[in-house]
């Protein structure tokens, strides 16, 4: 079991309200992209990713082989038989973990929480491979950021698999969300000083201005800010991110956010076909647009 930290503090952003999330990754289970990558004789529980065309940020995990000794976190009760193949169920995965000692836990999204909800624990699986949908990100044209060294590091780290399905599919327990949280941490750690300042300025703007407006409060989360900064950093010359140009960088990110909120979508940085904007829709985006435009024009 490997422990991985994420969240603002793990990224090096020690701002008011910053947090650190702890994730536990099962190292005994192996998730691969294609079946021929599995080494024989099989000594671990092996799954193959089956990506979903309609939901590019999600995948099914098809069981190929199970180790003789039952895995503590992926038991036989987690497996669902669809009559043709065996899949790992997100719901069963979470449910069988919540009764583990030292105390009783309760499902809280993709995490488990104690009764007081003061401690969130997240359990993930890991694949050493990025999914096929990430190939355009690896190959697409970019100016100078991120560097080839950072891209290679991200490729070598693969991805995490989160036990939660798409919000639009109620009751779906066979689709696992593909997470690039480790990749995103590498990307943030590769920021220069001005990029970090811009990120901090965006987060403070969200906390001190956007979220103090009752109509716009909690519509936007810091993940959108980070995603906007990733896209702007890739699209612009790195010389744009110099200290005298800090507010210009901030404006570029703000314009990106305004465009996304106006269209009610935000393209995932690695798999851009996946569009998301959480709580924001055509019924409430005008409130948020009003706040963002007032910041832009101030």
Automatic annotation (TrEMBL):
<dbReference type="InterPro" id="IPR024810">
    <property type="entry name" value="MAB21L/cGLR"/>
</dbReference>
<feature type="domain" description="Mab-21-like HhH/H2TH-like">
    <location>
        <begin position="202"/>
        <end position="288"/>
    </location>
</feature>
<protein>
    <recommendedName>
        <fullName>Mab-21-like HhH/H2TH-like domain-containing protein</fullName>
    </recommendedName>
</protein>
<dbReference type="Pfam" id="PF20266">
    <property type="entry name" value="Mab-21_C"/>
</dbReference>
<dbReference type="InterPro" id="IPR046906">
    <property type="entry name" value="Mab-21_HhH/H2TH-like"/>
</dbReference>
